[in-house]
Amino acid sequence: MTSPPFAPRCLCLDIETAFDDLLSIHKLAAWRADSKEGFSLAGQQIATAIERLDALSEGAAFVLGHNIVRHDLPALARLYPGLKLNQLPAVDTLELSPLAFPANPYHSLVKDYKLVRDARNDPLKDAQLALKLWQDQYAAFAELAVSSPDEIACHHFFLARDTRGGVGSFFAKLRAAMPPKAGEVHTAVCRLAAGKVCPTHLAEILDEALVDPAVGRAFSYVLAWLRVSGGNSVLPPWVRLQYPATTQQIQKLRATRCADSACPYCAVHLDPGRELERYFGFSAFRPEPANAAGGSLQQDIVHAGYRHESLLAILPTGGGKSICYQLPALSRHWRNGSLTVIVSPLQSLMKDQVDNLIKMGIYSAATLNGLLTMPERRDVLEKIRLGDAGIILVSPEQFRNRAFIEAIRHRQVGAWVFDEAHCLSKWGNDFRPDYLYVSRFIRERYARMPDEHAPLSCYTATAKREVIEDIRSHFQDSPGIELRVFDGGHERQNLHYEVMAVSKPEKQPLIHRLLEKEFGDAGKADRQGGAVVFAARQKHVEEIAGFLRDMGWACAHFHGGLDAGIKKDVQQAFIEGELKVIVATNAFGMGVDKADVRLVIHADIPGSLENYLQEAGRAGRDRQDARCVLLYDEEDVESQFNLSSRSRLSRSDIAAILRTLRRYAGKTKSTEIVVTPGEILADEDLDTSIEAGNPDADTKIKTAVSWLERARFLERNENHTRVFPGSLKVPSMEAAAKRLDKANLSDDLRRKYLSLVSLLINARDDEGISTDELMAALGESSGDIIRMLHQLEQVGVLSNDLALTVLLRKGVKDAASDRLARLAAMEKAVFAVLPELAPDADSGEWQDANLRGLCQDLKGRTGLDFIPEQLMKLLHSLARPFGDGAKGRRGSFDVRVLRREILKVRLLRSWSNIREISDKRRAVATVLLQTLLGKLDDKLRGVDLRVECRLGDLAEALRSDLEIGPQLKDELTAIEAGLLYLHDNGVLILDRGKTVFRSAMTIRIYPEEKSRGFTNADFEPLKEHYSEKNFQIHVIHEYAKLGLKKLSAALSFVFAYFSLPKLEFIRRYFAGRKEILERATTEESYRRIVESLRHPLQQRIVAERPDANRLILAGPGSGKTRVIVHRVAYLTRVLREPASSIIVLAFNRGAAWEIRQRLRSLIGAEAGAVTVLTYHALALRLTGTSLAALAENTGEDPARQGLDQILDQAVALLQGKAPPGGLDSEGDELRERLLAGYRYILVDEYQDIDQRQYDLISALAGRQTQDKDARLTVLAVGDDDQNIYTFRGTSNTFIHRFRQDYQATVEYLVENYRSSAHIVAAANTLIAPHRERMKISHPIRINHSRKDDPPGGRWQQLDPSGQGRVQALRVPRDAIGQAVVVMAELARLKALDPTGDWSDFAVLARNRATLDPVRAWCHQNDVAYRLSERDSSGPKFHQTREACRLLDLLRHKPNHRRKAATLSRWFEARFSDAQRANPWLVMLAQFIEELNCVWGDLAVPSSTIIDELYEFGTDAARSEQGRLTLSTVHSAKGREFRHVVILDNGDWQDASDDERRLYYVGMTRAKELLLMCESAGATNSFSARLSDAGIARLPLPQDIERPEALGWRYVSLGLADVDLSFAGRRPSGHAIHRALERLDYDSPLRAVRTGKRIELCATENRQAVGAIAKNCRLPAGQIIAIHVDTLARRLKKQSHPDFAHQLKVEAWWVPLATVTIAPNREGQGCQVGSRSNSHASVEVAAGPSVEVP
Question: Which residue intervals of 1453-1570 are DSSP H helices?
């Protein structure tokens, strides 16, 4: 027999009001359960239907509804007081629900205080739903009346006193009795609560509840909850809010100890000792660490937790810290259902704690972190909401997640716990700004919920005095919490510490031996326990783990770069003993709890003593003995400083990010922006040291935002991408189900879709529901949620109203459509080139390429300007995934840049697949752009035009497109890929809606702060933290040094560090060394960089603050270059500025090479990351120009004029005047993008710059930019007295303007460390008359340490006649006579110095021709010499056969990576010692050495080395050691020699300031002796006017013999002087090619006249190998000898097209030689051999010169 229908005589009621006005009723529904009559009214209908409502109320016994007592009935009574239903008793299902269903999972129809509806906007269905709920409540109470008549009687008593009386009638009917008497209730309650509460406190509360109806109603809820207490059930939040007495009563009944020591409840459940055994099985608390009385400190801390005290506990690792907060948390959850929130920094720490609790049979703990899958995350959030979780361990960033915030909002928080609390303090070793955000969150929660002040506790294993005080003051200041300190120290008696000195090569074998000593042979390793090896870098971790595995150890590595799943598996395998050894970074060190770790080895010194103890504390947690070994290598300390600096942000970094966010807000015209860290980094205007490709880039951006938030510039919140209920197209769940049934979905998918619809139906109209909330509720990823919404749209359940906003350019220059067309051309060109660079699609290996070479190639193919920055942006966008499914979501390739030079590509797909994806993505992007442009008015023109559209509109456009529509399986994925492609490449700006596709930050910019910048004051707290990090590295360094000497001293040092105030600790252990603690380098390093400098002024300049521009006016020999090198070293090593942020500009490549060499010797391999370039080399990089590609594509090299044009292009780019296509040029944004990361410019020889170079430096520095933070800091070193290149356009005007241009401080370096006092005095006298000198009041002087030396130096004793004075040497008017006199004097001086040789001497001349007789003298006297002046007509270095040997090797495998060391070994094997006398091979060796200096151990693509070699050859000079130097004064600039002669051949006649400076430069090259020639004919205008005791004048010698050979001329044949195609016109098998191959440097040739031309023939077989060009005119005379200088390679493509048909080979050698000619006697012409002659040369009357056709 079926039961009768449930049809009580009641009026079911539901109304809907405005959220902000309860008296504005939108809808009203009433329904009679007994008669099945009812209606639903809306708007104006309600006021006209009052009589109808009264009629329906007739005969009703009571009114029924959900939340009607507090919401519906009061609203109706105020608007319509005469309604009959106002007089009826009321039954509220909301009020009854916690009484009927107190047990988790509660009732399915109630969530929080709302009904879970199945229809949208239907109050009649809601009224009927309330009846269904009451029916279930009725059944539950009926069952309760049978099972617990005491409880139902108590509810009857406490609730029947309500004025509306409906509930009382209900209980009376249910019990068939009147309400019980107070005495009966008292007895019943005591029976019900026995053993569950403190009887003493129960009596107190019950006395009040029996009298006061309000207290009694609250107690009724407590009584219902007590029925299910002690488990996972919690009071609904609305009960705690409406009846706060419930929380107070539960607290008093179950959590407050009474005075009765024999209380049956308190003695059991409020005794921590008993609870410890109950939960953890321990009979007693840990005896160590002990409190002041010798008892257990752990017990004291737990007792404080039970007393709800806020505290700060310092306990050593393994000291039972976790139990201190877990035990009170578990007790609180049992007693009152409250939640303990534990903030922890590491995921491994959280998982470890939860797993350990589960092992103890405790399942009420959960963790929420990034390792969880979405379903796991959903389950955890549900556990929090329902009360299953009593402990939740969370990472601090979760406090920005809306779903988590909503989950804990439902719970009473019993305590807040900060584990690893040192993360709160800027003095801590691991300060994290997100921790401060959590404290702010707690403070704001306190402000909103003042009655819920949960205690707060902080725990750490390592906290020194400053950290403790910082944490205490932080919480004291806000939110006003006083923390009680429990200090258990850091020591553990079972750990045995050691420090062992070790070099880098010894580390891995030593680790292996230590493991063997502890565990035995690796193959067996049968001894119990495990070992942890810590290393500082991920790469080092992997190397050590690989070595140990090779040695047979069960070993794995663990670091932050691993996937979450792999981390989880490795951690679990180690804890369970499957792995014996784990090698890890400190990401593993803070929380892993494996009890039997017997050995911890630190392969690298850690960043702080705190970290060391924390990580070493992984050992011996079972309280058995364990070893902790620190391997000490001093270089590791510098590495720690370097690692620390890499994670830092500068003030300018944070200021730049603030500017970017403000610009973003300005563009979007909103103070609230949604942006990802990647988009901030990709912003065109951003200028920071943060490199987008670095793994920590995302963290740095978020950290910067945290600091900006802390400084009150902005507020970061959770995402707000929302789906609104109004998008539903169905009225109810039933209708949705019908539509989904037609879609033939699986049961699981159908269930998920219905769940999503239910969430939308139950969301508020005005708020909607965020995608984050949907993700949390359904356990799906963001992409899956978007896809579900899209599919629901397709089946007609909802309209996809996710909104997007983009900004477009239309109808203007460089409009969005133009940009897309240009982008398509660029993309096709890229895909034509890239497969050649990375052909191995399936190898998975990184392929390297020369970035500039690629840019140059693309320029040639497209005619578009490609610069590296633009190319990288395009490649990053092309690498993005495109497609559906897991396979489709895989990227196309990985791409990154090394040192701004090397492009690294790793393919993830085949090239054909990548092209197919590219074409499809571009087609999608075209449709999307057309759709978006179509939404703009046809007449609208402008930039940043705002277009709003729905995601559904774009999906429909793609479906409708006949070409691309049929190809797409998933429009959502296509839209995502297409829009991001357009956004990344600057075609449009994707604004609102990015969070549909990406995990973004929602940031609100405070408009009231727009005029305020991020100042030094704002940066100060972070600066203090960085300073503290330096201090901590110095401390661990000192510990290691002490530990090597005496371990007990090191342990005393540790104790003092944690117990003494900081200043006292410093005084004790760093007395006299306090200043070193502020530096980010070791004492030894600082000594080399600063203290080794020779002068206090040099030291001050080098160690000055980094943010001021400076001009250093430095005299000759004053250490200009040294100052630059040491300043760079100071910036990188002491201030720890990134080496990549520094540019050093040198006048020529020789100067750049010297700077690189010195820098590398000072700071090691780090020097390679510093940009040291000439002006032209920098321009090549900025414009993406490759000299090698230019030469190989066109066959020609750019002349100096061509290089100057490239310089002009670079300046135009930096000034934003000529941006390449697709790059905006508004303001300074292009400059900032080109120079991303650069901060400092150091300029050598500033006096020698010309207008182009001045413009380049100005544009680099941002001299004219309005944003001061965007300017680079400039340090220029120069000497206006040494400007000698005015013929090239250089001018002292620029150095004179520097102070004004850059608001620079001027310093004067005038102490000369080079020359003797006599030379310095003479030079001062010479330069004094110069007009407009900048150092006129700062004459050069000898350096302080030599002031007491003899003015002539050591030569005052060595040379009795000259005594080290400056010699004015009278010489004949002819050059030959001058050479004889000069070389005789030099020979005399050389003979006086037993340690000297000819390399000590330099002979300098105004013009090169003056040197010829000296050169002839050297030949005649077998004196080795070098000519430093390079003939511009000669070959470029890369054309020489010597360079081509290397180029051929490199071109054989252009994509192969090579190290400089490998090339050095090749050079050693390829060329003999005898061959290395070849000056071109000397240059080749120098090039390889330079390569090693720049790249060190890095493997470099062959194409990059080729480009470097071409660039090297533009201004490299041949350099040979051990030879007499013959040079012009111009070429000697920047060099120094022991002894210098300045020749005078009548070419110094001009007395201008330009000539005076040139002569001054020549004089100041000398260190010990200076000889100035004075011609008897036309004496120079300078030396003759010098009169000083330090000058000795030597008369003109008599009877000067002039050997005829000194008149010989030496003519170097250049490329214009020979027949370039001579060998090319012979076929490949011709003998000429074999003869050319046999030639080498210095091979003799003979000249043979053949008709009208002179041929050059090999001496051994008289084979003609070349010919002199017909337009070459040799000096008249007899050819004495011809020797090969080099052979230059000539290519067919270099020849004129008119003559190409004559060429028989593609490439050939052209011999270039030096011709020695004895001048004719009067009346003779040039003597040349003929083909019939048998001698090397035969005299013929050929006139004054020979013209070769």
Answer: 1460-1470, 1479-1495, 1502-1515, 1529-1532, 1553-1563
Specify whether the CB–CB gap between 1397 and 1498 falls below 8 A: no
CA–CA separation, 1154 and 1160 (whole Å): 10
E strand intervals along 1118-1158:
1142-1146
pTM (2 decimals)?
Answer: 0.73
Which helix (H) or strand (E) segment is 114 a member of?
strand 114-115
Exposure string for 1622-1635, b = 16+ CB within 10 A, e = fewer: bbbebeeebebbeb
Angle of helix 166-175 versus helix 123-147 axis, rounded to 10: 40
Instruction: State the amino acid at position 99 in one-letter form.
Output: L
- Beta-strand pair 1537-1542/1366-1371: unpaired
- Range list of β-strands (E), 1558-1663: 1566-1575, 1591-1594, 1609-1612, 1644-1650, 1653-1658
Yes or no: say if 1187 and 1510 are a contact pair by the CB < 8 Å rule: yes
Q: Which amino acid is at 891?
A: G
The secondary structure element, H or E, covering residue 923 is helix 911-934
Q: Under 8 Å CB-to-CB from 519, ≥6 apart: which residues?
A: 525, 526, 527, 529, 531, 580, 598, 599
Bridge partners of 415?
340
Element (H, E) at 894: strand 893-898
H/E stretch holding 1253 reads: helix 1251-1261
Token pair for 818: 């133009």
pLDDT along the chain (1749 residues), means of 10: 78 84 82 93 88 94 92 92 92 93 77 69 88 93 94 94 76 90 95 95 95 94 92 84 92 94 93 93 91 93 95 87 94 94 83 85 88 79 90 90 84 92 78 80 73 86 85 84 90 91 93 93 82 92 94 91 80 89 76 82 93 88 91 90 84 90 82 79 72 74 88 77 60 85 82 85 65 73 73 78 79 90 89 76 70 84 80 82 57 78 82 87 93 90 84 87 85 83 84 49 86 90 87 94 94 92 93 87 90 90 89 94 95 88 90 91 88 90 85 68 84 76 50 72 93 90 73 92 87 88 92 95 94 90 92 95 95 94 96 91 94 93 82 82 94 85 92 83 91 87 90 69 87 92 89 93 97 91 87 91 91 92 95 95 92 89 92 89 94 87 94 92 51 34 30
The residue type at 375? P
**How large is the angle between the packed helices 971-984 and 868-878, nearest 10 degrees?**
170
Do the Cβ atoms of 1248 and 1537 come closer than 8 Å?
no
Complete DSSP assignment for 1667-1690: EB-TT--PPSEEEEEEEEEEEEEE
With beta carbons less than 8 A apart as the criterion, state whether 1137 and 1240 touch: yes
Ordered strands of the 1425-1427 beta sheet = 1425-1427, 1524-1528, 1401-1405, 1537-1542, 1566-1575, 1366-1371, 1591-1594
Is 490 exposed, middle or buried, given 0-12, 13-18 or 19+ CB atoms closer than 10 A? buried
Burial of 81 (0-12, 13-18, 19+ CB in 10 A): exposed
Beta bridge partners, 1708, equal 1690
Adjacent-strand bridge partners of 1678:
1718, 1727
Enumerate the β-bridge partners of residue 907: 893
- Amino acid at position 945, single letter: L
